[in-house]
Amino acid sequence: MSETAARRELPAASAAQAQAWNSQCEARAPADAPTYQVNAYQRSFSARVVRVEGNAVQLEGSALYPGGGGQPADHGTLRADGRAWRVSGAKLARDDADPAFPAPGVWHLLERDGGDEAADDHAPAPAAGAEVEGELDWERRYRLMRTHTALHILCAVVWRDYGAKVTGANMEPLRGRMDFEFDALSGEFVRELEQKVNAEVAAARPTRVDFLPRAEADRDPELIRNKVSLLPPSITVVRVVGIEGLDLQADGGTHVANTREVGRIELPSYKSKGRINKRVELTLTGD
């Protein structure tokens, strides 16, 4: 199949399906849950600038994912008063962390959008209190959603069939890697694993987002698939992402509504990262 045909046949969620998935997430989410945790398919938003520090802003009401858990921060555009800024990344400032930021929380990093007709390369960031219109780089976000769900499928199959925990993970749009507690890997094993994960894609399993009190989540050790739990003690409500009939684990990132949106998964390479630490590389085909 040609790359063009693969893109054409990829079953993306319809607007109605995406809205239904978002509505179900919203119904189960706490009132203060950030937009990106309940509306993965939301492409634009209105927000208020809360704080400004140099070329970084804090936003109230942003749909931009700030990064975390191996998933990179969203990119996008902010507009206000005829000017535009490109959101090129984000940084999470903690109380005892980077002194460059005056307050803890998510800071979005801005660049002037030179492609905008009204752009002024020397214009400052929007002022605190300003109302801005935001738009995600949707192609990048959706590729990351597909990649993140693909990694959950891989993790779930390895846990179900081989009982191996995750020792590390990372992703970029349409590619990622996962490290597992394996003594050894072989080409034959990885080919078998690739067949298994693609069977789960073809099964068209719906995904689901829930929010659990920390005490309840702590009673289920299988919610944490990492060898070492990455949940900070300060988190009192744990977001969990499930794949029907396959997987349930704590996760803060963005995902597709159904595994068939992932498209074909390829596991093109593997390597040893230590005695009981083996890496599997993952790529997705189609746009």
What helical percentage do the residues reach? Answer: 10-25%
CATH architecture of the largest domain: 2-Layer Sandwich
In DSSP terms (H or I, runs of 4 or more residues), the helix count works out at 6
Q: Helix- and strand-based class?
A: alpha+beta
- Extended strand count: 14
Walk across the major sheet and give the strand order.
Answer: 1-2-5-4-3-6
CATH fold field value of the largest domain: Threonyl-tRNA Synthetase, Chain A, domain 2
**CATH C-level name of the largest domain:** Alpha Beta
- Uncertain stretches: 1-9
- Note the gap between the termini: 14 Å
Overall morphology: globular
Radius of gyration: 20 Å
What is the H level of CATH, i.e. the homologous superfamily of the largest domain? Answer: Threonyl-trna Synthetase, Chain A, domain 2
The major pleated sheet works out as: 6 strands, antiparallel, barrel
